[in-house]
Amino acid sequence: DQQVKQNSPSLSVQEGRISILNCDYTNSMFDYFLWYKKYPAEGPTFLISISSIKDKNEDGRFTVFLNKSAKHLSLHIVPSQPGDSAVYFCAASRGDGNKLVFGAGTILRVKS
Amino acid sequence: GAGVSQSPRYKVAKRGQDVALRCDPISGHVSLFWYQQALGQGPEFLTYFQNEAQLDKSGLPSDRFFAERPEGSVSTLKIQRTQQEDSAVYLCASSFGQGYADTQYFGPGTRLTVL
To answer: I need a labelling partner for B53 at 20 to 30 A (CA). Which of A10, A80, A103, B72 fits?
Structure first.
């Protein structure tokens, strides 16, 4: 059973515009959420996180929004840059554990 | 400082061979994780160490998979009698603390191909 789902396998955005990546989860025990970015032949790199007590967290061009009632989170990248082209993974963890549960990833392509 | 390193970066094994994958975490990091990433999927948890203690091995797919971290630093993931379905990228991650909110830093992974 997929507890973390990223339903869009890919997304293409023009440079300078907003990129919105979405993620849904099913396990209500999750209380910490993260986004990782991955380039080919490299490991995932931490991007931004949010605790379930918040509904928004911002870091520069990156903002994560959490809607607990809908069990949905999204990552906004504004403005998008060609260097943002990568695979983005949504991940979640529970307060009583340390392991991360990942979605399948979304390939973001930013066109210049 | 140096990030998480893994070796080898690529490994080709014949079905039935044993393999050993190494992970060097960031110095001083208490927690170490192994994940398996199949093609087109996200990483899936295998096992977790806090120092030398293996606290969670619930993700290991079978008893052919074994992990150790004897001195609380370097870790080895061993797969015995490899099978084709073991083909995947094996990722190691470490974090400074023990908390669930501690950022996990990933290595580049070892791509295992079983023929």
So the answer is: A103
